[in-house]
Amino acid sequence: MDNYNLSQELNAYVDELIERYPVLDDSREDIVDAYLILEESYLQGGKLLAAGNGGSAADANHIVGELMKGFCLPRKMSQEFADKLKAVDEVRGAQLAEKLQGALPAIALDNHNALNTAFLNDVDGTMIYAQQVNGYGNAGDVFLGITTSGNAGNVMYAAVVAKAKGLKVIGLTGKTGGKLAGIADVCIRVNETETYKVQELHLPIYHCLCLMVEHKFFG
After folding, report:
1. Widest Cα–Cα separation across the chain
2. CA distances for 161 relative to 27, 57, 190, angstroms
3. Is residue 147 within 8 Å of 178, Cβ to Cβ?
4. How far is 169 from 50, CA to CA, in rounded Å?
């Protein structure tokens, strides 16, 4: 996989990212490969499962927000679906057809407090994300593990389940990639080791990925 797999428009997003953040030049190929995994999954009707801890949990939520609604494009409903909405309820359907936006299915695994605390209390807190990957994940989906060290235990357990179920695994980590780099299909490593510096570079990377998939499916 390389930039030649991308259209000129999609390449432009990566070029702009590297221009703004030259330190990410070493990560270019992995960013492109991660995009291609996401594109393939969404083309096949798959979804993204994202997980992390602390600031990386917030990043997982941030990513879901960019994918599940319009990010930089309006994502208008098709006329066919608009007609179906109106056929169910003429008034509400018309309102929904006007305001709903196209979505790229994505779930942040840290958001399910009742489930996560129940599993933590009843079974094993390090496997809260693994349990959700087991429940939500299907072959062809993608698991995104965000961990600045690459060694977060709960992310690693989830990655193992993801691989066993036929999901592709993308890692978003710091300089070494940690243990996650050894299991991920693609690991995007940024050339920093301090947590906050790693997280500062994660945001423009996942913004770029979200822009690219939005352009592909709604551009």
Report:
1. 56
2. 26, 19, 25
3. yes
4. 10
Q: CA 93, 78, 167: angle at the middle one, nearest 5?
A: 105
Nearest to 27 by CA among 184, 192, 144, 138: 192
Q: Which amino acid is at 15?
A: D
Could you say which of 3.30.160.20, 3.40.50.10490, 3.30.450.40, 3.10.350.10 is the CATH number of the domain covering 3-68+103-218?
A: 3.40.50.10490
203: tokens are: 């945001």
pTM: 0.95
pLDDT band at 6 (very low <50, low <70, confident <90, very high): confident
109-154 pLDDT per residue, tens: 999 999 999 999 999 999 999 999 999 999 999 999 999 999 999 9
Q: Where does the pLDDT of residue 91 fall: very low under 50, low under 70, confident under 90, or very high at 90 and above?
A: very high
